[in-house]
Amino acid sequence: MSRSIAVLGGTGPEGFGLARRWVKAGETVIIGSRDAKRAQQAADKIRACVPNAQVSGDENSVACVSADVVVLTVPFEGHAALLKHIKPAIRPGSIVVDATVPLAASVGGRAIRTLGIWQGSAAQEAAELLPNVAVVAAFQNMAADLLNGDGPVECDVIVCSDDASALQSVRGLAAKIPGVRAIDGGKLENARILEQMTALLVGLNIRHKGHSGIRITGLPNEKYKT
Amino acid sequence: MSRSIAVLGGTGPEGFGLARRWVKAGETVIIGSRDAKRAQQAADKIRACVPNAQVSGDENSVACVSADVVVLTVPFEGHAALLKHIKPAIRPGSIVVDATVPLAASVGGRAIRTLGIWQGSAAQEAAELLPNVAVVAAFQNMAADLLNGDGPVECDVIVCSDDASALQSVRGLAAKIPGVRAIDGGKLENARILEQMTALLVGLNIRHKGHSGIRITGLPNEKYKT
């Protein structure tokens, strides 16, 4: 498949980790940043350690222009502004994946608490700001440290969207990361739960010095072999 | 230890499952119900299949009188009324464990959504109504079907409380259930996340015909061997 994935905020630990994993899996990735030069440096860093890497770097909205999938991995304080900034650049028919978590740390509070979002979640705010795009919520609960390592990432990625086809595409993308099982989590409204779970996991990481993630137990396994 | 555990709402699937598991583990359990006779029938049912069972049944507030630990497993629509009803009966120094989830089904909505609770969560509402008692949030995310089976229950129980000693006691109780790992989830305010996770799991159960639960990955295991 010749799709192209823009990872906005891709110089941060979560975005960089996702970008690197997808490049390793043979995907074509454009790292997006406010600063094109920093984005290119991040792309160089991946190219230096992955043979035949298909990766470049550019300013966030430029990165969107040629992307089929746009992944948002930015701190919540930059979320709405970024969405407005990239809106004209997003191609019709592309998918926007929102991994943003509205941690209270965004407004000087604690990373173990979330802010209340009027629309219900950051992902639903994205859907409101981008009414003609399929918005998918995913990747909120992955430990960036594990994503940036070389081992399998032992966690499930719960994927939520009101667009069934976009949801399946993003399940496929998640499953490209070794160790990950990608689960259909239903409608986009459920993103509020995924986002809050991150605050719980941050608390567990602080309390127990871990890099926590989640696995869902008790599901029929056949369906989730990827 | 000669503690006594009252499971209120213990004739329902979640409460009955917990009661039976604890009786099997050698704990002394009083099943509580609005109807003492139904509570006694539930106790008889456990006694019939567990040798040397220490189990009885009684009306909810009577069940509290001799209990060291009171576990609430009632539908949210009965939660506040039950707390007011049992308040005079709860012994000083006892622990109240709240497994209640404010599913929107309580007011005719869907079980895949939760109601907003002014205090943040059902467990925090309990703490407000019982200011002199150690309230612990736990057991919201266990599949009742697995609890009522005989195999290990493959899930983690995240335990939250502002009372560190009560939290540890309830971790011990959770760990009596085969398969369960009991995790310190921090302050009671985090109960809001545990309660919402249940709505997500209900959705997964409907969508994927499972009996879902969660495991936290990425924590240092030593600490969680129970």
Can you describe this structure?
Chain A has 226 residues and is α/β, with parallel strands linked by helices. In chain A, 36% of the residues lie in helices and 19% in strands. Chain A has 8 helices and 9 strands. The longest helix of chain A has 18 residues. In chain A, 55% of the residues are buried.
Features:
homodimer, about 230 residues, alpha/beta, 9 strands, about 35% helix
General shape of chain A: globular
Order of the strands making up the biggest sheet of chain A? 3-2-1-4-5-6-7-8
Question: Beta fraction of the residues of chain A?
Answer: 15-25%
Sheet with the most strands, sense and barrel status of chain A: 8 strands, mixed
Write the layout of secondary structure elements.
The structure is a homodimer of 226-residue chains.
Chain A: E1 4-8, H1 13-24, E2 28-33, H2 36-49, E3 55-59, H3 60-65, E4 69-72, H4 79-86, E5 95-98, H5 122-129, E6 134-137, H6 144-147, E7 156-161, H7 164-175, E8 181-184, H8 191-208, E9 213-217
Parallel strand pairs in A: 1-2, 1-4, 2-3, 4-5, 5-6, 7-8
Antiparallel strand pairs in A: 6-7
Helix pairs in contact in A: 4-5
Write a concise synopsis of the structure shown.
Two copies of one chain form a homodimer. By secondary structure, the first copy, chain A, is an alpha/beta fold.
